[in-house]
Amino acid sequence: MRHFLASRPAELPALLDHWVATGVITPEQAARMRADLGPTPPPKLTVLPGLPPAAEPHAVDRRQASIAIEALGYLGSLLIVVASLLFASRYWDDVSTAGHLAIVGGAAALLLLAGFAVPARLGEAAVRMQAVLWLGATVSTAGFLGILGDEAFGWYDEDLALLVFAGTTLVAALLWWRLPTVVQQALVVAGLAGMAGASAAQLQVENLPGVAVWGVGAIWFLLGWGRVVRPRWAALLLGGICVLIGPGMTVPADGGIVLALATIAALVCLAVLARDLLILAVGAWGALQFLPIAINEWFPSEVTAAAVLLVVGGLLVVGAVWVARRRPGASAPAKRRAYAIPAEVALIAGACVAVAVTAVILVLGLS
Fold first, then answer.
1. Whole-Å CA distances, 162 to 8, 79, 158, 249
2. What whole-number distance in Å separates Cα of residue 214 and Cα of residue 265?
3. For a Cys staple, 161 with which of 74, 75, 103, 198, CB 3.0–4.6 Å?
């Protein structure tokens, strides 16, 4: 009996309790057996098929601590923003320009340093905290530059916008290089689009800023398609949004509508050829935005408008079904990679777009 129990120590407590309950041994005998065999190790937990193993207590404690720290970081960032807004609404007019710069610049510096101070041992929580803190720092930097240009330099309109977007883009690019997250990438794209639009606005020609924003979006889309910029889906999404926002800045001009519809057609065709639902979704969103405008401008008849919407809607449905049926599954990663153009081709195509858009802006602006 002793040899049997010693060979199966994990089952000892349950066996002794069972024998006592069935009257095989007395409670006193069970107590002597436990004392004779010494302490027994804790029983092992049995993991049922399909269920994850139970987390260790210290792992749970670490996860709970990281969640609490992350929540405190978000709350602190929110309080900084709220405090700045309250101070600005109550005492802004009573403070000098230097005070305004100190307040906003101090908030930017505090959020920036807080992001650097986040310990890397928090893992994914650290990345999320840094992304949010540096988002606040970038926005505060834009506010600082806006105050500097407006109150200190006396700049306005396109000059002020160029200062704000150029400085903010520089900060956002440095932070994106340090922390390549989607949030930082979005800030870089927004800054580049704004800077390009403000630069084109210097020529004082209507609709040129929209063309410049379209160019930034097209270049970013190509860089994402060639996997020069990662993650690819974020680059495609951000570039697709820009190539639709740019023409939207030019409507109801006929040229802007034509550019928008051509861009939408290119996105839909590319989505069908590449079997990419994300690109198709961006193209469909653009169709919803610009088709009503084009119909109102070119086809005032209600019957014609309904017919056009019906045809376009049917084509989008057919395209979606085609993409869904032809799209490779998770078991075919090699096929999905084949739809990405080489990085060299993406860089050359992006450079060509940059040259072409710049030439169009200069020709139209200086003529």
1. 77, 30, 6, 17
2. 15
3. 198
pTM of the model: 0.75
- The amino acid at 159: D
Joined together, the tokens standing for residue 163 give: 């200062």
DSSP H helical segments within the chain, as ranges?
Answer: 2-7, 12-22, 27-37, 57-91, 97-117, 124-147, 157-178, 182-201, 208-225, 232-248, 254-274, 277-298, 302-326, 333-338, 343-366
Q: How many CA atoms lie within 13 A of 271 on its CB side?
A: 30
Domain regions of the chain by residue span: 2-37, 73-202, 208-367
Give the Cβ contact number of residue 10 at 10 Å. Answer: 11
Q: Could you report the per-residue pLDDT of 207-250, keeping only the tens digit for each?
A: 999 999 999 999 999 999 999 999 999 999 999 999 999 999 99
State the helix-helix crossing angle for 254-274 and 232-248, rounded to 10 degrees: 160
